[in-house]
Amino acid sequence: MTPVLSVQNLRVEFPTRRGVLTAIDDISFDIAPGEVLGVVGESGAGKSITGTAIIGLIEPPGHIAGGQVLLRGSRIDNLPPDEMRRIRGKRIGMVFQDPLTSLNPLYRIGDQLTETITTHTNLSGSQARQKALSLLTEVGIPAPEQRIDNYPHQFSGGMRQRVVLALALAAEPELVIADEPTTALDVSVQAQIIALLKRLCAQHGAAVMLITHDMGVIAETADRVAVMYAGRIAEIGPVRDVIKQPLHPYTKGLMGSIPSLTHDSDRLVQIPGSMPRLTAIPSGCPFHPRCPRAFTPCPTFRPELAPEQNSQVACWLYTPFPVAAAAE
Amino acid sequence: MTAAAEHPPEVLMRRPSRLRAILDSDLVYSFLRSKVTVAAAIVTLVIVLAAVFAPYIAPKNPYDLTQISILDSNNPPIWMEGGAWPYILGTDDQGRDVFSTILYGSRQSIAIGLMATLFAGMLGIALGLFAGYAGGTTDAIIMRAADIQSTFPAILIAMLIDGTSRALFGEQRNETVVFWVMVLSIGLSFWVQYARTVRGSTLVEKSKDYVLAARLIGIHPAKILFRHVLPNVVGPVLVIATINLALAIITEATLSFLGLGLPPTQPSLGTLIQIGQKFLFAGEWWIAIFPGITLAALVLAVNLLGDWLRDALNPKLR
Amino acid sequence: MLAFIIRRLLQAIVVMLTVALIAFTLFRFVGDPINMMVGIETTNEDRAQLRQDLGLNDPIPVQFARFVGKAVRLDFGNSYQFKTPVIDLIADRFPATMELAIASAIFSLLIGIPMGVYTALHRRSWLSNIFLAASLIGISLPTFLIGILLIFLFPVTLGVLPSFGRGDVVRLGFWTTGLLTASGLKALVLPAITLGLFQMTLIMRLVRGEMLEVLRTDYIKFARARGLTDRAVNFGHALKNTLVPVMTIAGLQLGSIIAFALITESVFQWPGMGLLFLKAVQNVDIPIMSAYLLLVAFIFVTINLIVDILYAVVDPRIRIDARATA
After folding, report:
1. A89, C226: Cβ pair inside 8 Å?
2. Of A230, A281, C133, C303, which one's alpha carbon is 20 to 30 angstroms from that of C172?
3. Given CB atoms, is A109 within the 8 Å cutoff of chain C?
């Protein structure tokens, strides 16, 4: 079955006066129809840029410097701007972090909804309004007939994010990219929104790329998870496997740093050091300076993703490395 | 394991010298990279230096009555028919060399502009610190005054003060009085922006713990605030100052043009243009146009420098 | 909402009173009003009598109250130069200034806003660079210099368009208009451009700055992510959000235009209030000076008030807040 989304060897570069920065360096992954893929990693790992690159909204001078993005088998990364615009919203939807700034404060939410609907469908104004009302009901806004003519600031944070979800799903996209959809919300509301997201996408048959730094959200919601580090994917596999039996040392460090309710630990595991800045990415495997298991090939050779049990992992611990070259 | 694996690369480099740090800084980089800004800086420098050294450069002192001859009046510039050395840009109706009048006039324009900006800055910073620190009624009064004053354009305020001084001093105002009245009137119309910025910064600092700590020790919080607020506001104040300098020069030129500023015996560029306007229709355009071009170049250059400074200091654009 | 309006009105009155105080101080204490009004031959007894009659010996607050009372009734006394009521002089010249101000305001908006939008949307095109360079020059040139250069270019060198005066005017009731005659319209062109050029560059840079800010916001990003057309994003969303603050500032600038008109009037000898004020300052004609001051203050304060209320009407966030604090 053709995956909804197929990212192959994607590379995103930002030319600056200090040289070219590589924000994403050769990443590849697929998302199956209806699947929820979590993309997790620390700040600066490149998760958001991946989402932005897929939907074609990278700000110049940043650009896609290599690789391909395929939507249901056809390339979308090299489309002319007008065709890409038609794909946005209609086939790929995106939700951003802060619901307050995501909505235009001067327009009623009903108008913002109907505008999106009429842009992508042939529905008339009043038909679009009907659809908007039903969308609002779906996302759980009480009394939609009254609230449809309200302005964004008249909603609470959680309600606003529901409106944002409604807007993202208005044209029935096949893939929804959610970039930290709950980070700006109260903890009590986060769970509701995540559950809503999962339910809506299942009902509309949309796949989800869920970008977050919160492993708890991933554990609850995702089917598979990709762990990103310094613009590359370290490990990608089914959620249960990655969480219960992490392969990559970085993933192990991430899992160990989550406090557990089930067993006692005196101290949380901490990964020493911090994620390298884009201007100073280490050679070979980018994690090697902080890795407790780094050895001979790590500083020199860059590991690629290779299958290991149910997942894929990019680490010399699991792949034979070129012995002859390393011995020099 | 190699050394490189143990220590991140940055640690192995030596710390660069101070000079290198400045030369490599974003500020200098953006300055040198923008040819326009460099050109503007050069123009400003040339005009300023010419003005400062006017007595040495000018072929003749146009305000020394012994040096002008009415026989040489209304000469066109040297490249036109009838022009003569040393009057490279021509002469006016009194026989004054236009090039020299421009040099002396620029002197006045720049001097008043700088002094007025300095005055406005000091007044504004002082009032801003005071308002922020004292709070309460003092703050309210100062800010109200600022609000009221900022509803009116600076030129009206300057005119008002100037007109009042005219009424108070009568026609016996001598040249020094005129100069300082202009500095005062222009300076007084521009203090508000400084005050508001500095007050904002003061309020932010005032609520911080170290001020409370200083008070507990017995150090007067005003001293502390002075030392800590000022570094924070240097950036915005500099930007305001460059914009202000351009505006001050324009305001002074306008007042002089309207006859409310420097008189023809001690003219600024504005006065020169006013004198020259009468001769436009007679075809003797050089009397007004050359001072006009100088004024425009000066203000343009200052504005360009201000623009560059604003962009360079703006953290959002980095 | 009503409370908001009332609060702003009260603030406006406070400002007016403060200005009135300044005008009164000018009027009463700068120079001696009696000496300005009468000739040299008047005896000291007559002067003292005049002083008494005019109430100049009454306590200051009483004089101030009287001053304010008369001002509200538009009685500003007589001009020292012309010996005629100040209000008549001002009323006579008011239409000239207003026509000039409005013409230049329209000019600056009609040209400034599209230029600003264009330079924001097409950041790297050569036309944008030309516009930006022109705007820098526009901001750097003092108004009077623009006037001089325009006079040099058109009437002197090319021989078209008049360089002074208002042309033929038509009287309609108490208003005189130059808009109904060919010479009146021609005379309006150069002064309107002179006065409007500075405003135009200001508006252009303002629109550009605001629009660039707006285009960077999350809601524009989200609008693009929803696949809205460029037209919808740029002109539906971005432009609307840009114009709201721009409109405020443009409104405030109208007051500025009326005040700056005085420079243009001087260059072109345009018979407006500004020129009247200028001559008054040169001749120390205090009644005209203080009356003009009050009038300009009134215009500014009124414009500020209207713009504030307008802003509240257009931006729903302020409307709601205003209601909340009521």
Report:
1. yes
2. C303
3. no
